[in-house]
Amino acid sequence: MGGNSSTEALAHIPVKQRQEYGTLFQNLSGGTPLLTPEHLTILFSDQGLDLASAVIVAAKAFVAANDHPSHHHHHIPHLRRRHLPHDNAAALELSQTEFIVLCWRLCEGEADPMAQFLAALCAAEVPGREETHAGEEGAESATSGRPWMLTQYFEVGATLALGATIVAPPPDTPVLVSHLLALLPPGPPPALEAGTLYTWLVDHPLALRVALRPVLALCGRTTPPLTLPVPSLVTRPASAPTLLTPAMLLALAAAAPPPCRTEWTRLFATATDGASFSAFRSALLSAGACLLVVRDTRGSVFGALTTEPWAIRATFYGREPCFLFSAWPTLRVYRPTHLNRNFQYFSSGLESCQPGLGMGGQMGYHGLWLDADFRRGHSRARPTCSTFASPQLSHDEEFTIDAVEVWDLQPREKEEAPKRPGILSQRPEDQELLEMAGRRMHSRDMQPDDRPPE
To answer: What are phi and psi of 376, to 5 degrees?
Structure first.
């Protein structure tokens, strides 16, 4: 951009922002008139010049397509694949005007311009670069078929979102990236055109927030326009370790309903409470919206989120929203299929019904099951669980429990006038037996000293 075109491109940008981004450009470029990939390696050091070069190529294509402020993502022509030109230095140089326009368009946190930029990034492929990270521990094949640059860009964004530095990314960064990219529709372009990417970013706000992080870092923004849904964790003792990793916390909080994103209180952990099914039951029955996290002895981590409070019942019950999830070695959320409503099952030990905790599927073939002996469980979901479309969550179909945690995400609603427990609620096993027999429980809420009126 030069001359009149530069003036026109900057005309709609406030003077204060022009000056701010202009100063930042001079700092990044070391006072030179053009920004090159070498100047960006401070941000993309782990991925090297390839990603930095692709970002500049994508930025130039994005700015060229947005030369008028009224452009919208579905009015922009398809960006053809741009191989990084090694013989054209100008194509790998970003002018100050282009940089200012890029910052101005992207830093407000809207899905529309970010989708355009990501589409341009997908089109800027490095010749001969492998498309996947198959073989990386914990990454699975979730990035198969995805442009390598998109995967690398999101690894930078996820690292920054997890509060780490690029030179020392957390070990579960690939797991979070895998989770986000798996939410995209399958297939190569046109599956990843701007319109598809826009829908993805709108439907999955965590993806938008992660995508913004590298751009915000590039543009010198320390406070993101959109905050990540990270609940505060309450444990006793306060410094006690937990099964929840930063990536798990981000993904599960984003998948949880908004009222369940503020504070998570751990009510039970085998690490501190021991392998006690009685303590586990007490924690479940006192929680409102609840997160159950399980680790088997083979290292797989998985669990369930429920919004219907747990209760001892002889049959399935529950309501949406609820889901099963896997957290390691893959991070995925599995929501109800609406084929049935076999969401929750919890029995404490009657011989006439199966004692334990179950989610999804049918009796004996659950998406997730924990035995009442608190030693073993199963995930019998081949090919998938009918209730949640989840695959086998554990490493083996029959697994041995290594650790369990129960988190209260939203306390139970308190009644206006608290009542003492009813006669049957003092013995939930008796209530469960009557339910199995189909008997109406007229005395469910009767108090021990209730008397008929005189």
So the answer is: -130, 165
